[in-house]
Amino acid sequence: LGLCVSRASASVLNLNCCLALLPMCRVLLAFLRGSQKVASRKTRRLLDKSKTFHVTCGVTICIFSVLHVAAHLVNALNFSENYNEDFLSLNAANYRGEVSRLYLMSVLVPGLTGVIMVLVLFLMCTASTYAIRVSNYDIFWYTHNLFFVFYMLLMLHVSGGVLKYQTNLEEHPPGCFNPNKTLRDNVTVPKAFEETFPDYTTEPFPEDLPVPEPFVQNNFMRICSEEPKFQSHFPETWFWISGPLCLYCVERLYRYIRSNKPVTITSVISHPSNVLEVRMMKDDFKARPGQYVILHCPRVSALESHPFTLTMCPTDTKATFGVHLKVVGDWTERFRDLLLLHSNQDTEILPIFQQRRYPKLYVDGPFGSPFEESLNYEVSLCVAGGIGVTPFASVLNTLLDGWKCYKLRRLYFIWVCRDIESFRWFADLLCMLHNKLWQENRPDYINIQLYLSQTDGIQKIIGEKYQALNSRLLIGRPRWKLLFDEIAKCNRRNTIGVFCCGPNKISKILHKLSNRSNSYGTRFEYNKESFS
């Protein structure tokens, strides 16, 4: 039973170690998501679950690793107690009762690599918990990069060859009679054989003495023509791991080459509520609204990098792209200090000749996200919570450049913030888009609703400059059920894409309401931001 459990759990581990790497191939996922011919909308929505799939594979690896280790502890006892003196090459132990050596390492390489892999997996598992990721992201980042050590050890782990199979079954079938060995010590003597040879002792079987005919005809025993030969199983882990691991390494090499040249920072803007905007330029950089990039600043951290959603994408007329990042951790704090080191103003437009005083910044990407689909629905509902507005900012910027080339014909934009200052991040963008649509006689193209949970300072911030937003500013939280019913009533028998980037509480409510049926025949398809 121990061997069956260890072999079965090993097969599950091989499968999940293979699949866990595929969701991390960001370039491949971005290609599949952006290709209308390769992937349909349903397929692209499945690709948006890549992070969930990766976490599921990781949890499965942890569970079956515990089962695999427990089964091998049982195997160590079985190998010791069931020492086979007839077939010495099959034994993992040197003698009967040798338990201590089998507990530590039945064979040197599998034992050592197994112990180290358990330690690495324990570090990766514990550091991946939500509490550690929120309190200290650096621990999660550095321990998770131990996966490469884990996979290298996994390749070596299967090279011990503890389990073996017989290669000469025809010459030596299991249970056959070997005339050159003592019969009583090796096999149970059939009664017919004892009756024919009553005086037989433990002496070697005479070669010239024929075996009784009834004994052979009744298939009591077959004659062995040679000694059994055993060979270790060829490790199957290589077949499972080598392909995805090579694919991941090739992609990482491609990403390194693509992001090897630093970007040119054109402007750095400090917004209210600890939000920093960085605008950049890079040769041959192309991106679609809703995508994200990974920023790496060597002066902040030599190995650490973080994903940020693009709030401005390059177009045919301008090559500038930008991100908004909220200063909430050590990395963003150090990054902000480096960028604003020589500036005492909230806004600084950097001349080209002054670029050297700013740290080198490398951009990897862009990579796909669910919000690319927001322009592919006829009706879309976009819900943002706080800084979660960033993916929708790139969509709004794209619509500002021109909306007629997209399938989208109506956009519901809901933005919930705790303080009034947060609306200033994209208040100018919302006003410009509103005025543009009014001039083009399409005021119903976008429905803007801003929700504020605090009322201090409204008149001070929302004045004549943002007059278009005054009538759209509401106090309190959205009444989601009434909002969904109203949208369903206005868009009967239509499919509406629901996109959310914000707190989990809002996300769960929207997900539940999207799956709820309604009397208008309207279908809601839920999408949620999730960095891979």
Task: Characterize the structure shown.
InterPro entries: Cyt_b245_heavy_chain, FAD-bd_8, FAD-bd_FR_type, Fe3_Rdtase_TM_dom, Fe_red_NAD-bd_6, FNR_nucleotide-bd, RBOH/FRE, Riboflavin_synthase-like_b-brl. It is built from 20 helices and 15 strands. The chain is 41% helix and 16% strand. Mean pLDDT is 79; it is low at 102-106, 182-187, 200-205, 211-219 and 344-356. Helix 4 packs antiparallel against helix 6 and helix 15 packs parallel to helix 16. It has 532 residues and is of the alpha/beta class. It folds into three domains: 1-166 and 234-250; 262-341 and 357-368, Elongation Factor Tu (Ef-tu), domain 3, CATH 2.40.30; 370-531, Rossmann fold (3-Layer(aba) Sandwich). It has helices at residues 2-19, 26-34, 41-47, 50-81, 100-105, 108-127, 130-135, 137-144, 147-157, 183-186, 191-196, 213-217, 237-258, 330-339, 390-401, 427-439, 458-461, 467-470, 480-490, 504-515; strands spanning 164-166, 230-232, 264-271, 275-281, 292-296, 306-312, 320-326, 347-349, 362-367, 379-385, 410-417, 446-452, 473-475, 495-501, 523-528.
